[in-house]
Amino acid sequence: MKILENLKYTKDHEWLKVDGDEAFIGVSDFAQHELGDIVFIDVPTVGETLEKEETFGSIEAVKTVSDMYMPISGEILEFNEALEADPAIINTDPYGEGWIIKIKITNPTEIKDLMDATAYKAELGL
Fold this sequence. Notes:
Layout: E1 8-9, E2 14-19, E3 22-27, H1 29-35, E4 38-42, E5 49-50, E6 55-61, E7 65-69, E8 74-79, H2 82-85, H3 89-92, E9 101-105, H4 117-124
Antiparallel strand pairs: 1-2, 2-3, 3-9, 4-6, 5-8, 6-7, 8-9
């Protein structure tokens, strides 16, 4: 199971990669592994500004549907449209091509509340 050092993580297994005043958000390798084969991603919130821990969409696997939560507050700028054609990209590359949304950060101080890779590994019991 991969946990990248340059990302921040949530207890709900989302990751955040900060790029200036914007950030990419996806689900961790642990989450995609637990979900199994991902078949559909729904992000109805593009263009909206959401608060930390608000639901920004859902991820559907063969046997379950799970909500996805904002790691920090931000305006959703973009949905990874490649996931419409092939949501299983998340299974094969959760930290790269499998990113889900891009946001404009509205409260950068919230980043400090997220887990680094070491803390996330401890959360998972690794």
